[in-house]
Amino acid sequence: MYSIKATLEYEGFHYSKELWDFLRETHFNFDGLKIEDGYSGKKVLFEDFGNYLNLHDMEDFRVEFSDGSIDYGDVNDSNLATLYIKNLVLNEADADQWLIHLIQDDRFVHAAFYDFEYDIWQNMDDLMYYETSNRSYDHLPLKSNGLPFPLEATVVDTNNNPGRYVFRNGYIEFVGSVMWLGEQFWEKTGTCKDMVLACDWLEIKEIGSVIRIKALDKVFTTAEGREGELQNNLRNLLYFYNR
After folding, report:
1. What CA–CA distance (Å, rounded) separates 161 from 228?
2. Cα-atom radius of gyration of the chain, to the nearest Å?
3. Other C-beta atoms within 10 Å of 85: how many?
4. Which of 22, 107, 169, 181 allows an S-S link to 12, with CB 3.0 to 4.6 Å?
5. For residue 148, is the peptide bond before it cis, meaning its omega torsion is within 30 degrees of 0?
6. What is the pLDDT of residues 4-32, one digit of tens each?
7. pLDDT for residue 170
8. H/E/C letters for each residue in 47-92?
């Protein structure tokens, strides 16, 4: 299974049911499936979760499936909203299906198709997490977290990882093998759309006002070799102007 991450307009969906309906209408095949409210633990049918959100006046949500989850909420410090569909995406075509309604909405900023496990380790800086996972960090660069004593600690330096994400004002800097870039993306990043459209190393498709770009036929799973180079090239192309 694969995943999708997306940024949306801050406080754009005042009623989270509206966003849920965008998603539910792409996967009616999940109707009849019992899912779990990640906040209360209550079990709800997939098709009834929108009404559940309204009933409890929920502004954000976390939904647990047996093997994945869907998370939505505003990130106050970064003036954005995030949507994560984790380990529920079958393939690239299914990623398109999940986003088919959302990308046509003017509150959409951008999204990427990605591998959840790879994403975790590209952005994990906590040494204790490595230790409890029996994963070596001996080969990784380390740094101080920059906090004063007694909070100062040594962490993994992820600043140069090709698969890192960085919170910005109104969006998150991240890349994926397939990405969807909405109208707000160009406004928030200052990136030149024409420059992206002119890239001959990308497969590009215009879907209404959204630009869909594809750099590789599979999700990124390594920071090495051609995949690492493609991730760095995407980052330089898409976020150069706002660094």
Report:
1. 9
2. 19
3. 25
4. 107
5. no
6. 999 999 999 988 999 999 999 999 999 99
7. 81
8. HHHHHHHHHCCCCCEEEECCCCEEEEEEEHHHCEEEEEEEEEECCH
